[in-house]
Amino acid sequence: MKDKIRIASxxxxxxxxxxxPIQQVTKGxxxxxxxxxxxxxxxxxxxKQFNRNPKLGYARDLPELMKKILPICKExxxxxxxxxxxxxxxxxxDAIIEIAVEQGIKNLDVxxxxxxxxxxxxxxxxxxxxxxxxxESGESIRNYKERLxxxxxxxxxxxxxxxxxxxxxxxxxxxxxxxxxTLAPMVFEFGWDFENYDLMATGTIAGHILECGGQASGxxxxxxxxxVQNLAEIGFPIxxxxxxxxxxxxxxxxxxxxxxxxxxxxxxxxxxxxxxxxITPDCVAxxxxxxxxDLGNDRVRVFGIKGKPATEFYKVSASYxxxxxxxxxxxxxxxxxxxxAKAASEILxxxxxxxxxxxxxxxxxxxxxxxxxxxxxxxxxxxxxxxxTLRFAVRTSDYSAVERFGKEIAPLxxxxxxxxTGFAGGRxxxxxxxxxxxxxxxxxxxxxxxxxxxxx
Amino acid sequence: xxxxxxxxxxxxxxxxxxxxxxxxIAYDENGYQIIKKYLTAEKVKNHFEGICFGKVExxxxxxxxxxxxxxxxxxxxxxxxxxxxxxxxxxxxxALLRLxxxxxx
Lengths: 456, 105
Description:
The complex is a heterodimer.
Chain A: E1 5-11, H1 20-26, E2 32-35, H2 40-52, H3 61-76, E3 79-82, H4 89-102, E4 108-114, H5 122-127, E5 148-153, H6 158-165, E6 170-173, H7 178-190, H8 197-210, E7 238-241, E8 247-250, H9 261-268, E9 278-279, E10 284-286, E11 291-296, E12 299-303, E13 306-308, E14 313-333, H10 337-354, E15 361-367, E16 387-396, H11 399-406, H12 412-415, E17 420-421, E18 431-442, E19 449-455
Parallel strand pairs in A: 1-2, 2-3, 3-6, 4-6
Antiparallel strand pairs in A: 1-7, 4-19, 5-14, 7-8, 8-12, 9-10, 10-13, 11-12, 14-16, 14-17, 14-18, 15-16
Helix pairs in contact in A: 1-3, 3-4, 6-7, 7-8
Chain B: E1 2-4, H1 5-8, E2 9-16, E3 19-26, H2 29-38, H3 41-47, E4 56-61, E5 66-71, H4 92-97, E6 100-102
Antiparallel strand pairs in B: 1-6, 2-3, 3-5, 4-5
């Protein structure tokens, strides 16, 4: 057994710093590169791409990235784990193998994890007695099943561990929890028992710290943010894991950013609900048990973590089409910038009303004045306000109403308040609104499947 | 004595469906005792009048000198549906740090 492993975070979401994984595999020693590509909305986007072209539906940055890192990872023995397979892990793996062949790489095992995509089985699942009720509204999914864009179960670490046991150098999954990507190599390398819930929670919390990339190493840090050096060359976080469950969060030497008690504490709190009940497919982790010790030099020890048995359910995230929205903006300058922007908003509302367009929601915000903090914003002497941007948004199920709204923005330049600019991007176009359907499914209803593709 | 939260704590916020979560971390133990005592769910709910339209849940994490707040019905329908510029509540931690409150000195 190794006495420690180093797991490096390479992406915090699809669209993150493209070169971060390259830095992680070249600027120091690591054993695993883990990359989270899937936000909730990403699955519906990938499902749409797959519907148009059944060869797509995965994070297309991934094969491009592999061109750059595969030879290095192969040489150094770095294993790659990612959920970038999206709704099509098979084609994603095929694309990666194609690149490996082009590069003359041999002896490469690529594992794919399947079974999370339940979009085509909703009918059967309902027939078997699971209504996939919305966790927030309690409503059955029956009335929405025609409008579903995607439906996926969140698997945990277990299928990834199975893939690693089968010899995988690269593991490509569909919808897997972000935390499972990091927990899995610890379970595999140290032979952790899946029923040792303190250890499962330890790997899970390390995964939670890593899952947003640079957000754990000084990015988006609201503490003493100006004390963070060289964000331009930020080092993404690395978890050093030890067999006894000790974790040290750090980053490569010489990179920018900061790993400290404060940066890790902020990331621990990111997007959590009840901290004592952080539910994953692997365990229920207790964030109130986490101890942090700042060791200095961008090293923070994370220890003392407690966990409880996992629940009987997997979480399901389904998405469905829920109308259209569009956003337009115009910028007004001093004098009376805010008064002008508000007048423009009123004129626009009146015109939309006269057109008898029916919107579910209309929202006007004043960027540069109160768009972030609304009624909490400081009241300003308008004389001091140099400019303000009116941001006007509408949403409704009627595509044509949203399209017509898009044609009402530009005319305000010649037919509204003066000293206005900022309409260079053309008419705002309707974009489809995707809503989410969170639900639970008994674990017995779905079974992860692990396949190995061997390149000899 | 009047305290401004910005001067004793930092934090991070994000979305959980239509709810926003705001984690607030005190810079030191003294600060934690202050936020533990004075930063109640009710105070947070009142602060976000006109922004948060649901209940506010409060959780304590003494291990990292932190409180976590869950503000229900706050993001205008949730990340992808919301028309708000800050649809994911990313700036709400900073908005809470504006809060000023009286403490016994």
